[in-house]
Amino acid sequence: MSIFLGGHFEVQPGWVFVSHVESYPHNSTLEQPKPAVSFELKAMPSPLITTVIPTYRRPATLRRAITSVLNQTFPDFRICIYDDASSDETEEMVDELRRKDSRVEYVRRPQRIGSLANFVDGANRVETPFFSFLSDDDVVLPRFFEAALAGFHRYPESALSILTTIRMSAGGLAHDAPVLHWPEGLLKPPLGMLSILRYGNPDLPGLLIRRDVWETFHGWDQSVGPPCDMDFELQVAARYPVVVSKRPGGILLVHGGSITSRTCLDWVWPALPRMVSKLTGDENVPADAREEAAEALSRRLKRGLVMRGVIRSIAGGNWDEAERAANLFLQECKWTRAAGVVRPARAIGEKLPGMRALSRAFLAARVSLRVVRHLDLQWRFRSYSKLVRVTP
Length: 392
Description:
The chain is an alpha/beta fold. Helix content is 42%, strand content 19%.
């Protein structure tokens, strides 16, 4: 059996790409820059791809996620599920699928290690040449592996193969699809990094990663916190070429409840200042690109302190977090006037519960406006809305 990937090339089950990593020059005057990676085909035991699915107490959506991988047109893969010590029927549900398909593998941790550590440990255990992440409530589209491998075949120097991820609510409304705004094809460094900063980062359901690249960068830097996946993508795309296709590869589920369910500031601080420090200190990245990166991440920090640090914290009733954000206004942005507003607002808000409801209404209105702004996406991706429905 063979899977057609485009052109005159076919990948046979059992073939892998053998890579040789070298540094990629940033001299734009070179007509044919030295490739970061060269590939050759070699017959080796399958599988070729691993999908890492960390999970915790979401058996219904986990079933949907696993099924979306099993429906891939490219069959040479394994699915590794890492259960962070769920105490529900997760194990029984996965066992049912394992009995039907031997490509499904399951590890239940004896005690909780946390979501981020569960992702990283799962990736560190990968043995196949390529792998992808999939959250237990997201889905991949049937030709994701096929299209992502085609990108690696066409541009073998690529470190990542990126497809479009549709950000969609559980009701089937498309919120955004950042990669649609990117240039398509081979993005030589640092264009991939700049595309992340200008248009938005590629989400995990549409990203296929080379294992040797993961090992070269030592995976996600957990000290960055929740956005360490974006940090990894920035670091890789700043130094190596990536291949981009605007073809949809997956769906990331946007939760209505996520407005207040997480520690908001962890997504902003100290994550973003650390990203700035890492990129601006990398002399392998051109100076003008480092300057643009610092400006873009600084703008994101200011927005994040307002939206995540103050408004979302107030909506969740976390006034300590909102006041912490106010202190960061002074420390990071020198916003003395803005910082001075939060403390009086806390005194009023703790006495008037309506302020929390007002913050929630504001956030809900922003979500609605985003959907309205992307009415074209609702029409374009209307056929995918059924894929986010969960069968009990």
